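job 3f2a | input accepted
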Amino acid sequence: MPTPDVADDPPTDRAYAAELDDADPLADLRDRFYVPDGERYVDGNSLGLLSADAEAALETVVDQWRDLAIRGWTDADPDWFHYGERLGDRLAPLVGADESEVVVANSTTVNVHTLVGTMLDAYGAETVLVDDLDFPTDHYAIRAQLRQRGLDPDEHLVVAESSDGRTVTTDDVAAALDGADVDVVFLPTVLYRSGQLLDVAAIGELAREHGALFGVDAAHSVGVVPHQFDQHGVDFAVWCSYKYLNAGPGAIAGLYVNEEHFGTTPSLAGWWGNDKATQFEMRTTFDPAPDAGAWQVGTPPILSAAPLSGALDVVEDAGIDRLREKSVALTEYLIRLTDARLAEHGYAVGTPQDPDRRGGHVAIEHPEADRISEALRDRGVVVDYRPPDVIRVAPSPYYVTFADVWAVVDNLATIAARSLFEEYERETDGVT
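job 3f2a | predicted structure (432 res):
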């Protein structure tokens, strides 16, 4: 049964939301998650909820640690020694890659450091293109990598400027490429504030036309948007697993390296990136793995990787294409209701209306967004705020219902209509 289509002009009553939920083929997924009692949790683009599957996988590793101790590296089922590669194999279909090109390792920021650094070193690259709406950690890491090579970031970091302050279009990227000699393009798949989904295929083609390597930060899309990195000319990618993959706070990150770059020397070499066949020979010179496994740095944190194993059970059971279909329906319903019920109260949608240009969350703008976010939390609606005026609402397809979306909009209308936000002081929430 397909996900129900949301009407172009949907009824604004709660009964319509109930109809959509009754027709939702993924409705039962919610039963696999621990949804906080009495809350409408729409902050899964910051931290996804715990599933029983992830919990069970973590408990399994704890049991193995207790019963096997060090023997868990070889005798656990599955063994810990190949944990990163095994999870990479399962993630590969979500990003459109060969299993050898994906591994879980490190944190997202560490992966930005090692992959950008590798491209700078291996190909004599000196100039990196980013955009002005990026998540800050990407800029921090890239500027650091440039400085470590004696390159002034103010000269060698080219910024594609947004033409509207919300989105980064392919034309914006093209203009930046035409105006500079760029060696590496590194952009997000989804902008963390507005929720815009960039055209990865088109940008990949642009990068190739300009002779540049192409990397992406897919933190806000993996698990809710299917990708085709191999087909779309992506050279390398990074992402986290605690957002739409629901693997828990601080969960291990993932990375992709196109097979064309196998054999290049990782800029951050560590013993876990060594070829598995020679790793325990304890050589003092690095013998890198022949695939993406070479970009692992230190020993994988098994207790932070295990929940991802269980979380992927949910993804695989649902199917990434069906998850995307439901995500689009939820965000479409949210946008339609916002236009119908909230515009008169000063709200506006800052996310592209075209579902092909939209990730998994919606940016609802209001001049009092910070105080409205606080009022929402006190009413049991969990969102987050991004300065200066964005309330991010993420109706995760894993556990958010259409009735939840209706309730979020209803609360937003009530708070604005009654000026309930005036009870709160203005403040900035720095949670990512």
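job 3f2a | The two ends are 35 Å apart (CA to CA).
job 3f2a | closed
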